[in-house]
Design goal:
With 696 residues, the protein is an alpha/beta fold. 28% of the residues lie in helices and 18% in strands. A 6-stranded mixed β-sheet has the order 5-4-17-16-15-6, with helices on one face. The protein has a 6-stranded mixed beta barrel with strand order 22-26-23-25-24-27. A 5-stranded parallel β-sheet has the order 10-9-8-12-13.
């Protein structure tokens, strides 16, 4: 039988696309964008179009597996679910008895953003156990806190109102790769006469349609924003009525920006002073204006302050008065419903410690009390985490019992003692919300589970029974949890039912007006109720209360000796064909990215005798990897880019670029700082062995 059924893309992407799945005789044949979805508009990104290859990949885990070789080798034998469940829970009980429940750490990422399988199921189980908690800070927490200091909440302008805007700014984001359904909105705005500005260290694809391209030095975006504010304030281009009525600390800000004249900012950012003045004039004169700030820029040691500083700009020009005006910072908090009441915090027997996910390697090697049980789901930390030598050394510990619930035999799964087979979204039920278009979608299975794979909810319910947990929540099905979610007391959910979701596919949240206005009546969520250019709360928390540029921890200002030895800023942004490490094993998805590549400036390449196609060694004190060079003038001198997170076992020498990245924490919220990363580059002499690094 041939069927076309609705599905939802579960990945960590703002678009949360509606999918039409073509199923023939019980097999997923192909997928396409849902033409009836108001954002997807009938097309999908390149990576998701290849989804059947992922579902039926040779790397797919179909049965529970037990390790029979050394950790990391990937040798397993098939076992039953009962044996796997008994082994896992027996080991966990022993760890709790010999050490404590906090010696077990759940590690989860954004492999699925489904409410049921991405959040509720695992948290209920580990809360009941009293295990250590994971502080999920890898993506946007640092910037989110900076944003909140200015506005009081991590809500942003409605991006569906982009066509209403006269100015759209893609600041530190690459929409063609990470938010492709924003592109039609930008094009529609341009047809309506809008100006489009791209601010990015990399000459990304959307530069082709930009009216102005600004290419700052990595980590200098706060200085750029302050230079723009200097011009706007000194030339009286700001909205004085809005500033008087809805902001706090303008006088102090006016004094602060005198430290950042365009001439000085040019030296910090590498952006010439006339471009800064031109951008300031465009921004002040274009109303409404919309800033879409990507999360990449906040992955620096000064990331929180950068987002904090940029988020002050809309307050100067009164952008928040208009539908779609203001700034959108893409975090899940943009969805204004608090789901965490479903996660079972009341099940926890105490107040367990919290471990920052960015420091997994450090925690596995040095945390006290020690970690002796690790359960990984919805993530691939052996590939995606930083200072990777530490992570791998931790995973190699023989006294660490590791369980991985996965769809594919990833780098992390190869270090597991037990691997459990997981379903894809085409095989299970879940509820999905978008942090871009503020809507809900129901995903139901279109094919049966492959092999003996199970969704997270069924897996954790099974393990709960083997642990002897008797709470009724461990009998909940996915539909039970979804119904509970829809019953949450929130005006945004009013009128949304399971039946409507099944019939309509996608439903926008209920809010007054055509577009979501996050700050009703221009009332902000700060202590003053206004946009806070000066934040007393920041001061109390130990931060500079005013916007400021702080040099990143690795660079000529803060570490000149290190900079002389490793003079290249290495950035590792998203690739067109990958989403984090997802899809990295699908060869056909890598037509444009068929091997791990280092993009670098022609002057940097010439100094090192490197040409396009050469193998190059990229290294620093933390580690090294080998990449293929791609030489051009799309990057500034002194900047290099490696797009996408390649699996280690698909990379030369078994190492990806996270060998070089740092696990130090950002200035706010314990965020990641992998873009603050100085390296050296040299052409590989195939006859010479690579250096050997010893983990401390």
């Amino acid at each position: 039988m041939n069927k076309e059924l609705r599905s939802v893309c579960p990945h960590d992407c703002p678009d949360t696309c509606g999918i039409i799945s073509h199923v023939k005789d019980g097999k997923l044949i192909n997928v396409k964008g849902d033409p009836g979805h108001f954002v997807t508009r009938g097309f999908l990104c390149k990576k998701v179009k290849n989804y059947p290859k992922r579902v039926y990949s040779p790397d797919r885990v179909l049965y529970p597996l037990k390790r029979v070789g050394e950790k990391g080798v990937g040798k397993f034998e098939r076992i039953s679910w009962d044996e796997a469940s008994d082994t896992i829970t027996s080991r966990f009980k022993n760890i709790i008895k010999e050490h404590c429940a906090e010696s077990i750490l759940p590690f989860s990422g954004s492999g699925t953003l489904g409410l049921v399988n991405g959040s509720v199921a695992g948290k209920r189980f580990f809360n009941r156990m009293g295990a250590s908690r994971l502080d999920r800070t890898i993506c946007s927490k640092g910037g989110r806190i900076g944003y909140k200091y200015t506005l009081g909440a991590s809500f942003g302008a409605d991006p569906l109102a982009i066509p209403q805007s006269k100015l759209i700014i893609s600041w530190g984001t690459n929409p063609y790769y990470t938010n492709i359904h924003q592109i039609p909105l930008i094009k529609e705005a341009k047809k309506n006469g809008a100006v489009y500005v791209v601010i990015n260290p990399d000459k990304i694809k959307s530069v082709e349609m930009a009216d102005l391209f600004i290419q700052p030095t990595p980590g200098s975006d706060a200085a750029l924003a302050l230079g723009v504010m200097n011009v706007i304030i000194n030339e009286s281009l700001y909205d004085s009525d809005f500033v008087d009525d809805h902001t706090e600390g303008f006088e102090a800000l006016s004094v602060r920006v005198q430290e950042y004249p365009p001439e000085k900012v040019e030296g910090i950012t590498g952006v010439d002073r006339e471009t800064i003045r031109r951008f300031a004039a465009i921004y002040a004169d274009s109303r409404p204006s919309f800033i879409y700030a990507g999360s990449g820029m906040q992955h620096h040691t000064n990331g929180g302050m950068m987002i904090r500083t940029i988020s002050c700009l809309p307050g100067l020009v009164g952008a928040w008065k208009h539908p779609g005006g203001g700034m959108f910072y893409p975090t899940s908090e943009a969805f204004p419903v608090q789901w965490d009441i479903l996660e079972g915090n009341d099940l926890c027997p105490g107040s367990p410690r919290t471990i920052n996910m960015n420091r997994l390697g450090q925690a596995l090697l040095h945390e006290e009390p020690g970690i002796y049980g690790l359960f990984v789901y919805n993530s691939n930390p052996a590939a995606v985490l930083f200072n990777q030598r530490k992570v791998i050394a931790g995973l190699q510990r023989e006294d660490l019992f590791t369980v991985v619930h996965e769809q594919l035999l990833t780098d992390t799964a190869r270090y597991a003692d037990i691997v459990l087979p997981a379903t894809t979204e085409f095989e299970h039920t879940d509820l999905h919300y978008s942090y871009f278009h503020l809507s809900l979608q129901l995903n139901e299975p279109v094919i049966g589970p492959l092999g003996e794979s199970r969704p997270n909810i069924d897996t954790f319910n099974t393990l709960a029974k083997f642990m002897g947990f008797e709470e009724s929540c461990f009998n909940d099905t996915a539909i039970d949890i979804i119904n509970s979610a829809l019953e949450i007391d929130s005006s945004y959910l009013e009128g949304i039912t399971l039946e409507r979701l099944r019939n309509e596919g996608v439903i926008r949240l209920r809010f007054p007006g055509e577009f979501h206005m996050p700050y009703k009546d221009l009332r902000f969520y700060t202590p003053s109720g206004k946009i806070e250019f000066y934040s007393e709360k920041m001061k109390l928390d130990g931060y500079n209360p005013l916007p400021a540029h702080v040099s990143i921890a690795e660079g000529p200002v803060t570490s000149p000796g290190l900079y002389r030895e490793y003079p290249i800023y290495l950035l590792t942004p998203s690739a067109k064909s990958f989403l984090n490490s997802n899809f990295a094993n699908i060869h056909n998805s890598r037509k444009e990215e068929d091997k791990p590549t280092l993009e670098l400036n022609s002057l940097d390449a010439e100094r090192r005798g490197v040409k396009t196609g050469d193998k190059v060694r990229v290294f620093n004190e933390r580690g090294e990897c080998v990449l293929w060079a791609s030489v051009g003038d799309y990057l500034k001198e002194g900047v290099a880019v490696n797009k996408g997170i390649w699996w280690n076992n698909l990379s030369p020498g078994g190492c990806n670029s996270n060998q070089t990245t740092s696990d130090r924490l950002a200035d706010m919220g314990g965020g990641s700082t992998y873009n603050t990363n100085l390296v050296q580059i040299e052409r590989v002499n195939e006859d010479e062995p690579s250096a050997v690094f010893i983990t401390d």
